[in-house]
Specification:
- The protein has about 170 residues and is of the alpha+beta class.
- Strands 1-2-3-4-5-7-6 form a seven-stranded mixed sheet, sandwiched between helices.
- The radius of gyration is 15 Å and the shape is globular.
- The chain starts with a strand and ends with a strand.
Amino acid sequence: MATIEIVKAVSEADFCAVANLLRAFDVWRNERYRDDEGLVAGYDDQKAWETELNQLSRLYAGQGRAMLLGYLDGLPAGCVALREFAPGISEMKRMFVSDAARGKGLGRALAVAVIDRAREMGFHTMRLETGYKQVEAETLYRQLGFRAIDAYAEYPQDVAQKTVFMEKQL
């Protein structure tokens, strides 16, 4: 049985591990959407992506924010971020589980932990977005009580049409 541990990222080493995971996510996402190159290009500017990865501690630490790092058998294997979207409304961001850790419960553990953290921080609602080809993630979110909603952020129309927006009352 695999050992799962979820911790709040606080150190430079933690955020470095998250950045490495998110770089793996970028590779995974490009492969998953290889026949829909416009979607990835329209969603994330590569320069902006690298800027975010280099500023994770600033973006996801502090008031109304958190970055959680998931370990599987002692190795960093997944992450998820939380940020305030609007007063009382949180947003789940950057959920990713490495290939080696998929199917072992880490994704669910990360999602439950970030939902719990949002409640502890006083949020009453959580929102998220996921790509239309990320059916495993969408299934998990529905199992955890999220429901589809209209777009809550502005995207180019072709990107918004291929994005699943969801929300859960906490």
